[in-house]
Amino acid sequence: MRGKIKSFREIKKISRQLKKEGRKIIFTNGCFDILHKGHIRLLKKAKSLGEVLIVGLNTDSSVRRLKGEDRPFFKQDERAEILSSLEMVDYIVLFPQDTPYKLIETIKPDILVKGGDYRKDGVVGRDIVESYGGKVYIFPVVKGVSTTKIVEKIKKAEK
After folding, report:
1. β-strand 52-58 against 111-115: which pairing, if any?
2. Within 13 Å of residue 113, how many CA atoms lie on the same side as its CB?
3. Model's pTM, two decimal places?
4. Class of domain 2-158
5. What is the mean pLDDT of residues 104-123?
6. Of the candidates 7, 2, 46, the residue with the CA atom closest to the CA atom of residue 27
7. What is the C-alpha to C-alpha distance for residues 19 and 110, in angstroms, rounded to an integer?
């Protein structure tokens, strides 16, 4: 499993090699704190759009900045290991920034995939990907499923 988890430097080298080979790279990113069927469906769809799926995973510090001090529920190493066990995920790279802009600039994916809670014009890295003819794909939200809803349900059950 550890073989799928790469450093920034390693993913830079890998993505260059994949580009040389003419392989179609798909990129998505997120916190993936509590993995649910919405995440799984997005990752499956992303993989189906190309050959190699690279997932950018927010580090613990960036999750805290984005989601609050009580997050993440699972540490970055655990989240990375869980993602690495999924057959549709080829590589995982952790990033400490609030957005994956630098990562997208480095990987230069053919397709950038985000969940339906985003609008195409608000997707970080869209400008980069579209500048060389790449595409942005917005995956529709799976109704009734979100990490926030799961957390709310757990908190209700604890009362």
Report:
1. unpaired
2. 23
3. 0.93
4. alpha beta
5. 91
6. 46
7. 9
